């Protein structure tokens, strides 16, 4: 079973694609997870994929920016984003989908729109567990997973930990079903009062890290039991405001790039013998 690790473009938008992809390759990542705005120029996408090809990197386009509260506009703009990325080679797509206040039937229509994209392109779309989206909480996602058997997700449990203000000890059934349906991992560590610990290497955050490692281990064990060929993981520690800044000086309290590299290396070592 092979693992591929993806570097988030998030937080590095100010770096040229050429330099960014060179750094990604040099650190030992296998690809880039690229959060693509709904309004982006084609030349930006072309430049990104030219550099992915140049450096031999896989790509996971990430959807995040459909915010319309009017569902008909939301549906149209979500479909427009999927159509926009259709010409570009992708290993899979990560989608922050829908809204927490849309009805079940409305969010289901968005999931079905993503399934249409998969049918047309062969590229699977996985719906990320994320605050503000339909997957914002473990118990809500549990209901969707039960009612939509074909639904598959990107598990970012840091959001659920934050929303539930706990390490989900009392929501084991929801966690177990989520783990059974996970096809991509966002390896960020959350804690009950926030979606991102300041530094995953710091000993004071070890309890939070161990909870997340336990969940990721279970996904890996499941994939191994299924004789899966590939597991994809994006260490996804983000910049401000996920990364808290010191007051007045506005200096970050740790290094985003270093945090993600630390997480990648930790997981590479942890799963190196599989």
Distance, first to last CA: 7 Å
Average of the residue pLDDT scores: 97
Helix content range? 40-55%
How many E-type strands? 8
Secondary-structure element sequence?
A: EHEHEHEHEHEHHEHEH
Low-confidence spans: none
Q: So what's the overall shape?
A: globular
Largest sheet, strands/sense/barrel? 8 strands, parallel, barrel
Spell out the key features of this protein.
8-stranded parallel barrel, globular, 274 residues, alpha/beta, 44% helix, 9 helices
Describe this structure in words.
The protein is of the alpha/beta class and 274 residues long. It is built from nine helices and eight strands. An eight-stranded parallel β-barrel has the order 1-2-3-4-5-6-7-8, surrounded by seven helices. It is globular.
